[in-house]
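call fold(seq) -> C-alpha cells
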Amino acid sequence: MEAGNAPKIIPREVKIIKEDAEPDMASVGMTGGVPGGVAGGSMGGVLGGVIGGMGGAPPPPKPHQSGPLRVGGNVQAARIVNRVQPVYPPLARQTRISGTVRLHAIIGKDGAIKELEVLNGHPLLQQAALDAVRQWRYQPTLLNGEAVDVDTTIDVIFSLNQ
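ret:
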C-alpha cells in the first residue's frame, strides 16, 4: 500500500515497549458475556465496541524483535554527502550577530532538499542558512530497503569564531 508522496518521519529515538504478562481476564471481563464472544475477552476488543469498526484500518504491525533494535535496522539515517557552508552575512559579522538558524526540511527520495522553511533564528542569518542548505545533498534514506522522503529539522550554527 503506497502512502503517496507524504514524507516519512524518522524518529530520533526508538523505544521498545515490553509487555508484561497478560492480566487475569476473569477479573476484567463482564458477567454474562456477549453472544459469539471469546471466553475471557479479547485483547483487541473494546468495551461496548465501536460502530463501524476501525474503518478497515489494518492492525498495527507486531514487533518481530524483542530487545534493543540494532543501529540501521530497517531504517537508514540520512547521511549528508555534500554540505555547503553558509556565507556569514557581512552585516551580521560587523554587528557581531551569531546564533543558530533552525530549518524545517523535506529531503527527497533522491537525497536533494525538496522543501525548506525557517522555524527560527536571527533574521540577518536566515537567508544565508537557506541559501547554503538548499545546495546540500544527502544519501537517499532507506526504509525497509526503499528510498523515502524524510521530514527533518536542520540547525545551522553561525559562530564568529569561524
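Strands lie at 8-9, 79-82, 99-107, 113-120, 137-139, 141-143, 146-148, 150-158.
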